Amino acid sequence: MKAVCWMGKSKVETLSVPDPTLLNPHDAIIKVTKTAICGSDLHLYDGFIPTMESGDILGHEFMGIVEEVGKDVTNLKRGDRVVVPFTIACGNCAFCKKQVWAACDNTNANAHLMEAAYGYSGSGLFGYSHMMGGYAGGQAQYVRVPFANVGPLRIESDLPDEKVLFLSDIFPTGYMAAENAQIQPGDTVAVWGCGPVGQFAIASAFMLGAARVIAIDRLPERLEMARSIGAITVDYSEQDVDVLTALKDLTAGTGPDSCIDAVGLEAHSAELQGVYDAVKTTLMMETDRPIVLRQAIQAVRKGGTLSVPGVYGGLLDKVPFGAAFGKGITMKMGQTNMHKYMKPLLERIEQGQIDPSYIISHRITLEQAPEMYKIWRDKKDNVTKIVIDPWASAFNQEQLPTEPEDRSA
Amino acid sequence: MSVPLTEKPNAENTPKSSSAGVIINGHYAPPPQDKDGKIWIRTSALIQGSPQELYDIWRNVEFIPSWQEEIISVIATGEKTSHWAMKSGDKTIEWDSEVLADEPGKRIAWRSIGGESENAGEVIFEPAPSGRGTIATVLQEFRMGKLASAWETFVGRNPKQAVIENLRHFKAFAETGEIPRAQGSSHGDRGVIGGMKESVYGEKIPTPPGPNQPVS
Ligand SMILES: NC(=O)c1ccc[n+]([C@@H]2O[C@H](COP(=O)([O-])OP(=O)(O)OC[C@H]3O[C@@H](n4cnc5c(N)ncnc54)[C@H](O)[C@@H]3O)[C@@H](O)[C@H]2O)c1
Ligand SMILES: [Zn+2]
Ligand SMILES: [Zn+2]
C-alpha cells in the first residue's frame, strides 16, 4: 500500500510499504477513505517530539471502511463505516472506566519510554512516535486499529466523510478544550490560535454558553474564519497591538473568564521573547516555546480558568507561576479523552448544529502529502485544513472535488 | 486522652504493615537496596480483577511464556516445581524453580533450585482501598549471574526493567485479554539510525504473545 512516512526532521515521503495485518485478537484493519494532516503532525515534522524512527507512518486523523476484524472483535464487521479516535483505549482499566480514556493503562506498547519521561504512561496514539506506542498511522491506504471494540465510531447515516472525519481528533479536542475552560453562561473566553483546534474551541465555547469569544492569531484567512462563526478577532502581529492590552480593553479591564491555548509548543513570536526561546531550544536548555502559555496565564482574570489543548512536550522556561498562584487560577489540559465525546458530537453534526467541514481548504492525494506538509508548516496558500483521499490518484488530481463530495456519487 | 480526629467518612483501617515491606509500623519503607551481588526490584500495579482471578492466571506456570518476556517454556515437573527456559538473543539458559509459599487468592513465593539462574521472588494480590481493584505487588531478587547478564546483553532492558515490564504485560492480559503490540506494524525503510533506535528503545525484545500462538 501507499503511506506517508516520516523520514527525518522536515522530511516526509510517500512510500510503498507492506499492508498492515491483524496482530492481536481485538485488531481491525480499516481501508482508509479519508485522512487529514493535523497541527500535531507539525511537531513531528519539526522534530519537537522525540522517539520517531525513519519509516514511521504518520497520521492520526482518519476514517474508513472495516476490511477485516480479529477473532475477538464483536462490535464491528467487514463493511462498517467508522471514524477512529486518535487515542487508543482498552475500555477495561481503571482510567478507561473513569472516562479518562487518554490515560488508558494498557494500550501504549512502549509504556516504559513515556514512563521514563513523564512518570506514568498515557494511552497509545496512532502515528505519533514510539514513546506514544509505536503504532503505524493512518495517512495510508490501510491501517491497523488495535482494541477495535472500544474506539471506532460507526457512522450509520449517509453524512459525507468530510462532515464526520474531524470526530477523529480536532472537533472533540476543541470541544474538550471548551469544557475544560469551565465556561459559565455569559462568560467571555479568549482563544489563542485559529487553526483547526482553535476553530472548534471557539465553536464549542459558544455551544457551551459563552457570550463572547475573542480569537487571537495572525493569519488573515483564519481570523476571517473565526469571525464567520462569531468571534471577535485580534491580530497579534499588527503594529501596536499588545495582546494583554487588547484583552483588557475587550473585557472592561477584568480579563477573560477563561483562556484557551490552542497553539502549543511551537508558538510563533517576532518579539524578543521569541528569540529568547528559539536560542534556548536550540541550546537544548528548553524544549518548548511557551509564548502563548505565558500570555494566557497573564491574561486570564482572577480566579479564572486556563485550558490547554495545545501540545507541550517537555521543559518550559519562564512560566509565570507566581501570577497563576497569585490570581488563584485553575489549569486543565491534556490529550483529548476522545471516546467520551465522539458520539455526542456526532449527534450535534447529525442535528445540523455544526458542519465541521467548513475548515477544509485543501483536498489532496497521498503523493501530494510531502509538499503539503511544507505548505502546512509555513501556513502558505491560505491553508486551513488538509484532507487526503488515499485512493485518489495523482493522475486525476485536478478532478478532485473542491466542494464537499456527495457520498452517494 | 482526646482523639484528635474523629471525622473520617471514607477512611479504611490503616494497615500497620503491608506485604512486600511497603509499610512497616505505619511508615513507608523503600525497596531493599542492591547489595553483595544481589539486586532487588519491587513493583506494583492496580489491576481490575479479583485477587483470586489474578492468582489463578499467575499460578498457571505453563502459561507464563504467554506473558513474560523471553521465557520460551515453563514445564511443570511436580506439584511445586517447574523447569524454565529463557532465550535472549541467541542465548538460551535454563533453571528449575520451586514454589515456597502458595496461598490461593493471596500470594505465591518462589525460588530457583539449580540451573543457570539464581532468583527468588513473590507476588502478592490484595484488594485495593475502596474496592478499586486488586493491588499486585512483585518483589524479586536476582544474584547477578548468567541470567542477569543474558538480559543485559540487550540494550533497553535490565532484569529490573524486565520485572516491571512483565507485571505490565500481566496486567494488560488480565484486563483486556491481550498484550499491546506494535511489533509487526507496517513501516517504511528504517535505515541504520532507525534500526539503532529500535534497540535503544527496547523494541527488539519480542512482545510476549498473550493469547496468540507464539511465533517460533
Ligand atoms: N490535546 C490534544 O489532544 C490535541 C489534539 C490535536 C491537536 N492538538 C494541538 O493543538 C494545537 C493546535 O493544533 P492545530 O491543528 O489547530 O494547529 P495549527 O498549527 O494549524 O494552528 C496553530 C495556530 O496558532 C497560531 N499561532 C502561532 N503562534 C501564535 C501566537 N503567539 N498567538 C496566537 N496564535 C498563534 C498559528 O498562526 C496557527 O493558526 C497544536 O499544538 C496541536 O498539537 C492537541
Ligand atoms: Zn491531531
Ligand atoms: Zn484502558
SSE topology sketch:
The complex is a heterodimer of chains A (409) and B (216).
Chain A: E1 2-6, E2 12-16, E3 28-37, H1 39-45, E4 56-57, E5 61-69, E6 81-84, E7 87-88, H2 94-97, H3 111-118, E8 124-125, E9 142-145, E10 153-154, H4 161-164, H5 170-180, E11 188-192, H6 196-207, E12 212-217, H7 220-228, E13 232-235, H8 243-249, E14 258-261, H9 272-282, H10 291-299, E15 305-308, H11 321-327, E16 330-333, H12 338-350, E17 362-364, H13 369-378, E18 386-388
Parallel strand pairs in A: 11-12, 11-14, 12-13, 14-15, 15-16, 17-18
Antiparallel strand pairs in A: 1-2, 1-4, 3-5, 3-9, 3-18, 5-6, 6-10, 7-8
Chain B: E1 23-24, E2 27-28, E3 38-47, H1 51-59, E4 71-76, E5 81-88, E6 91-103, E7 107-115, E8 119-127, E9 134-143, H2 146-152, H3 159-176, H4 191-200
Antiparallel strand pairs in B: 1-2, 3-9, 4-5, 5-6, 6-7, 7-8, 8-9
Organism (chain B): Tunturiibacter gelidiferens
Protein name (chain B): Membrane protein
Biased composition (Polar residues) (chain B): 11-20
Helix count from the secondary structure assignment of chain B: 4
Low-confidence stretches of chain B: none
Mean pLDDT of chain A: 94
CATH superfamily of the largest domain in chain A: Medium-chain alcohol dehydrogenases, catalytic domain
**Ligand inventory:** nicotinamide-adenine-dinucleotide, zinc ion
- Radius of gyration of chain A equals 20 Å
- Terminal-residue CA separation of chain A: 25 Å
Number of strands of chain A: 18
GO molecular function (chain A): oxidoreductase activity; zinc ion binding
Family (chain A): Belongs to the zinc-containing alcohol dehydrogenase family.
Organism (chain A): Tunturiibacter gelidiferens
InterPro entries (chain A): ADH-like_C, ADH-like_N, ADH_Zn_CS, GroES-like_sf, NAD(P)-bd_dom_sf
Descriptive report:
Chain B: Belongs to the ribosome association toxin RatA family. Chain B: Residues 1-30, 180-216 are annotated as: Disordered. Chain B: This is Membrane protein. Chain B: Residues 49-167 form the Coenzyme Q-binding protein COQ10 START domain. The complex is a heterodimer of chains A (409) and B (216). Chain A is built from 13 helices and 18 strands. With 409 residues, chain A is of the alpha/beta class. Chain A has 2 domains: 2-169 and 336-388, Quinone Oxidoreductase, Chain A, domain 1, CATH 3.90.180; 174-333, Rossmann fold (3-Layer(aba) Sandwich). In chain A, helix 11 links the parallel strand 15 (305-308) and strand 16 (330-333). In chain A, helix 5 (170-180) crosses helix 6 and helix 5 packs across helix 12 (338-350). The relative contact order of chain A is 0.15. Residues 405-409 of chain A have low confidence and may be disordered. Chain B is 20% helix and 32% strand. Chain B is built from 4 helices and 9 strands, in the order E-E-E-H-E-E-E-E-E-E-H-H-H. Chain B has a 7-stranded antiparallel beta sheet with strand order 3-9-8-7-6-5-4. The longest helix of chain B has 18 residues, at 159-176. Chain B is globular, with a radius of gyration of 19 Å. Chains A and B meet through strand 4 and helix 3 of A and helix 3 and helix 4 of B. The structure holds nicotinamide-adenine-dinucleotide (NAD) and zinc ion (2 copies). Nicotinamide-adenine-dinucleotide is lined by residues 38-40, 42-43, 169-170, 173, 192-198, 216-219, 222, 236, 262-264, 267-269, 291-292, 309-311, 335-336, 379 of chain A. Residues 38, 40, 60-61, 86, 169-170 of chain A line the site of one zinc ion.
